[in-house]
Write a structure and sequence with these properties.
The chain is mainly α. Helix content is 71%, strand content 7%. Strand 1 and strand 2 form a beta hairpin. It is elongated and about 75 Å long. The N and C termini lie far apart (101 Å).
Length: 290
Amino acid sequence: MNDVNGIRNEEPEAAESVALEATDNDKKYDDAVFIALELGEHILKCGGEIYRAEDTVRRICKAYGAVTVDVTAILSVIVLTVDFGGKSITSSRRLSEFGSNNLGRLSRLNDLSRKVCAEKPSKEEFLKRMGNINGSTRISLRRCVFGSMFSAMGFAIFFSNFGQSITLDTVWACALDGLLAALVALPLSLITRYLSHTKLNAVIAKFLVCLLGGTAALFLGKVVSQCHVDMIMIGNIMNVIPGVSMANAFRDVFSGDVMSGTLRLCAVMVDAIAIAFGYAVAILLFGGVI
């Protein structure tokens, strides 16, 4: 009779342990799906390839015990279906914005994905590591401003007639154009940084920045008669030209991700139209001819 009672007493404990184990597995599987989608989203936003994001999601789910993983990613959404051998999870992640190309951040995300596959951390530990990456890869305002100024100066000098004849006048003209291009880039970089933190549409923000850049260049052309307005404009246009995004679009197409490449290319064309329209409006406002 005591043995029977002992068996009956052990049954509830065994049931509780099974339920607890099932709960732990459910949490682990949910964490795996969240971590995989989070890394896939940030890889795409940093300018990573579609196949890289899909491979990262697939490897992470496999590391957490997935039997089969079906993942499809385009530039605006990631759809994931995972079978953990008894539990199937389907989830998706909508990418509200394309983000900007940040190769340093992309490299750190790739390193983190390898550590996740090897160590299989919890969701809380993963978020801590993501916070460290966000803090270490954030571009400071000073670096952004000085980078824009030196870039505008360099392009203004590069596209000038400095190489045709090296005289004192041409050297002075090129130096003046470069300095004025850097002067225009200073407020433009601050305005761009401010608008990026607002809810203003990205295309409208780029149009406003180009409108202000063209207006500033034309105003300097009225004040400083020796400068070349076209060189000042070119120097600042090159700061907003989406050249890397266009290269990424063709990269996706050549890799077989035609839909994502088409989306990137459409976004590039819209940006190019906004840039051209902004400078065209500025020229027309000052009575110029396009």
